[in-house]
Design goal:
By secondary structure, the chain is an alpha/beta fold. It contains 22 helices and 27 strands. The strands form five sheets. Strands 2-1-11-10-12-13-14-15-16 form a nine-stranded mixed sheet. It has an eight-stranded mixed sheet with strand order 7-6-5-3-4-8-9-19, sandwiched between helices. Helix 2 runs parallel beside helix 10, helix 3 packs across helix 7 and helix 13 crosses helix 15. The longest helix has 22 residues.
């Protein structure tokens, strides 16, 4: 990366002079951009807008209401809701009150909710609807620290449960009595005060609370801002779960930079909403990109004929251009002419499905298949893959959209102010202002992963000469076959999703066994379309995925993937489950990470049969 002294000084100044807290950052943004649009959200079948000044009014009322309920500085206040405007306002209210937001996935099972609320000592819980309230009621005896539940959609009971409007009215009264109550709270917030308690996904055991300070978030916002990725003219589309660290970071960025954010957590509405809201960028998990890639390619395959040939030609030309740009060159000569034509007749029409204004996507939270990433670059919608964990306040590294900077298959350069190095067994270690203070009430576990400020990520990786970071797998996920060969299951699982457009999940097994096998589940929507075109319209999901025809189709994709793998990595046998993995069955986390050990243990008998000759 070539950077001049002026660029380095700009980065340092922006980061060194960052706000003291998220609350201070928000107040500064309101002062600078009060009448500008802050948030856009669905309401009554239309899109409504809220300015920064209006957001400030709502957030201050919520904050004052929390103060009136007895919430003190750094007290934990939980939010159990899907992504929506009220989540944003509640979190801002927490920040202005000097409280710390504890995040709870709305899909979490009661035992997990009880663990998070009791472990954190949360005093108040914002609940999305009556379903969340009833879940809390059923565990009320186990969460004695919770003095009040504030429901977004639903009625209060005059005792333990109150509505958001009732909390705001309580806040208005408090502000009338003590006008400076919130300004006084904000003045007392220090950079190292607790801002967020985010619980790990619990893929390998009980979820641990990650302590993230205000300084973690203001650093993240200023560091991303210093890269020049975003500007005040951007429009963000935000659907990611705000209970996830990635989602929380995406709340901080607009406060830092000043662009508006479209907030709508309904995943099934994303494709419909993009043309309506016309965002310039969006953060997402790989599953969204996998589904889009699979859907468009299966549609084109179904059309066949000249249309399919034209599509393949356009993507081939786009891929050449993407590779040129990755090498630091703009296309020229015949390639430039072909690309202009391909873009006009095919590629621009695909981009129009995303609103026509997207400059790039940002992918995080899991590995993105290289073929899928390259396809998006080929159609003119580059994906900037980044890397981070709850323990690093989300982004620790990210690719850049400049010529030669976005290297598919890597997670980019470290954010300014963040360092990487390789530890034992090539484990990635990360250090910087975004790294957590430690795990909540877990001193031994904290000491195991934090050494002299270096966080042991548990990920195996490489650092290229260019400075790009590459993740190869989770240290705990690597296994050895009985033949003594190490296998990286994560890499195989990501590869399969790029090969098979019908894949939902793949769990690779083979630890101590003579060959590698897999558990496969198929995407319900995609396989329904396949069934319709293959004489099985109207049949149940179970009947379709357990049919000989479906197995033959999946076998073809497994064979295709095996051609790319070393002999000892190849999937020799597999099971197709008659249902997908689910949060409800405890097989995946609310953030859609596979609980590998749980899945392998649950289906051990089926897997054992694969090894019976």
């Amino acid at each position: 990366m070539v950077m001049n002294i002026a660029d380095e000084k700009f980065e340092r100044d922006l980061i060194d002079n960052r706000a003291r807290s998220v609350a201070h950052l928000f107040i500064d943004r309101v002062a600078k951009s009060g009448q500008d649009e802050a948030y856009r959200f669905p309401q009554g079948g239309a899109w409504k807008s809220m300015t920064w000044a209006q957001t400030d009014t709502h957030a201050r009322q919520i904050a004052a209401g929390l103060v009136a309920l007895g919430v003190d500085a750094e007290d934990r206040v939980a939010i159990a809701s899907s992504t929506r405007l009220e989540w944003v306002l509640a979190d801002l209210g927490n920040m202005l009150a000097g409280a710390a937001t504890t995040t709870v996935y709305p899909t979490s099972q009661l035992a997990d909710v009880v663990h998070i609320l009791t472990d954190s000592g949360s005093r108040v819980v914002f609940a999305e609807d009556t379903d969340q309230v009833e879940k809390l009621r059923s565990g009320r005896e186990q969460i004695p620290d919770v003095v009040k539940v504030v429901v977004f959609d639903g009625e209060g009971d005059g005792e333990w449960v109150m509505t958001l409007d009732e909390l705001r009215e309580l806040g208005r009264t408090r502000l009338e009595e003590t006008p400076d109550v919130i300004d006084d709270r904000v003045a007392g917030i220090k950079p190292q005060h607790l801002a967020t308690l985010i619980y790990t996904s619990g893929t390998t055991g009980k979820a641990k609370g990650v302590r993230l300070s205000h300084d973690c978030w203001t650093y993240e916002a200023s560091a991303v801002d210093s890269t020049g990725l975003l500007n005040a003219g951007d429009v963000q589309y935000l659907w990611l779960p705000l209970s996830h660290v990635f989602g929380k970071m995406l709340l901080c960025l607009p406060i830092q930079v000043g662009f508006p954010t479209v907030v709508d957590g309904r995943v099934d509405k994303i494709i419909d909403n993009l043309p309506e809201t016309q965002p310039t960028w969006m953060g997402a998990a790989p599953r969204i990109f996998e589904k889009v890639y699979g859907k468009i390619n299966t549609m084109m395959e179904a059309d066949g004929g000249a249309k399919l040939k034209l599509y393949r030609w356009a993507v081939e030309v786009g891929t050449k251009v993407a590779n040129e740009r990755a090498d630091g060159r703009e296309p020229s000569g015949r390639l430039a002419i072909e690309y202009k034509l391909a873009d006009k007749i095919i590629l621009s029409k695909i981009r129009a499905r995303f609103g026509g204004h997207v400059r790039y996507f940002i992918s995080g939270s899991a590995a993105l298949n290289k073929d899928i990433a390259l396809w998006f670059s080929a159609i003119g919608l580059p994906i900037l893959e980044g890397y981070g964990l709850s323990e690093s306040s989300a982004a620790a590294s990210v690719n850049r959209p400049y010529l030669g900077a976005n290297q598919v298959g890597t997670v980019g350069w470290p954010l300014p102010g963040t360092e990487f190095k390789l530890g034992e067994d090539d484990e990635l270690l990360v250090k910087g202002p975004g790294v957590m203070q430690g795990y909540w009430n877990l001193e031994r576990e904290t000491a195991e992963v934090l050494t002299d400020g270096w966080f042991h990520t548990g990920d195996i990786g490489e650092i290229a000469e260019s400075g790009h970071i590459r993740i190869t797998d989770r240290k705990k996920d690597l296994f050895k076959t009985s033949n003594g060969k190490y296998v990286s299951p994560g890499a195989i699982e990501a590869m399969f999703k790029g090969v098979c457009p019908y894949a939902s999940n793949l769990v690779v097994e083979g630890d101590g066994r003579k060959f590698v096998s897999a558990i496969i589940t198929l995407d319900e929507d995609a396989i329904a379309e396949w069934a319709e075109k293959n004489g099985m319209a109207g049949k149940s999901y179970r009947d379709v995925v357990t049919s000989d025809a479906c197995r033959e189709m999946v076998q073809g994709y497994v064979d295709e993937m095996n051609l790319r793998l070393n002999r000892w990595e190849q999937i020799k046998r597999f099971i197709i489950l008659p249902r997908d993995l689910s949060v409800e069955e405890g097989e995946i986390t609310p953030s859609m990470k596979i609980k590998r050990r749980v899945v392998v243990k649950k289906f051990k008998d089926d897997l054992d049969e694969l090894y019976t000759d």
